Amino acid sequence: MLEAVIADLISIPNYNIITCIQEDLTTAIPNFSQWEQDGRLQVHRVGDPREEQACFEQACRQSDIVWIIAPEFDEILSSRTERAIQLGAYVVGSDLKSINLSADKWRLYEFLHDRSIPTISTLLLESQQLTFPCTFPCVIKHRFGAGGLGLHYFTQLDDWQEQFSHRQVNHSEYIVQPFVSGKMLSAVVLVNSHCREFFPIGEQRICWESGFQYQGGAIPSELAIDVTQSVQNLLQRLCNELPGLAGYVGFDLLLPDENPTDPLVVEINPRLTTSYTGYRQLTQENLAQRIVDSETAFPLLKWDETRGVQFRPDGTVLINQMQS
User: Fold this and answer.
1) Which among 130, 145, 160, 176 counts the fewest CB atoms within 10 Å?
2) What pTM was computed for the model?
3) What DSSP string runs through 124-185?
4) What percent of the chain has pLDDT over 70?
């Protein structure tokens, strides 16, 4: 994903890019070296977190625009956004209030529930939980997890007692939800000062046989027109309730098998997601330019309806021709 983002940013005239990567990370784009020689790209290769933090802060001081691509867990996205703002940087993306709310799955559930926005029933585990508060199968998530980290899937009480209840963990940092069978969707809204653009709705591929395994996704998902409209109506409502969402915002949704026309909100990701690598293959427009140049009124995006993409968890993309 980093390579895709840098390639798109470099293609914007008069943009120079500063980024930081782990020193042993290899890149597959041969143009990286040429871009560095031309002075268009500065890549700081670092070996430890303190060096990376210093590079990040220096880049914030030097840059006209800062685009932070980071996960929500451990408050990484929030703390980096806050630090960039403190350094006087112009940060594209959602505000701190929206980031912090989205990062905490329990607070997000309370927010959605209070506003009667459809979501999965959720309970907060108590520190001294003696009985299991949910039916089986169920899902337990770390309330500050991201990308499936801290997620456990249980089919019976014995599994819970063996794998989770005896572990030395702070139970109050976990939430529990009933497992709802259905189709997992991935939606993106590009939000700027001029409009909200809905990207084609994608499908997430998740294997539950071994607990939880994210296997990538596909864009677009085959949905009936009324379902697509229901999803877009739900996304509009979420953006209205959270006006601090901005830039590229990802939404994880679920179409329950029992009510396949009534989508449920699972998570909100106020940041770039892996699906970016797929979406950029379905349009000739530069998505990165629309994200960083958020004050410009661009024409509406045009999507190639003759193709679809599948992408792996690492962002590798396979392009498919769509059948008419």
Assistant:
1) 130
2) 0.91
3) EPPTT--S--S-SSEEEEETT--TTTTEEEESSHHHHIIIIITSS--GGGEEEEE---EEEE
4) 91
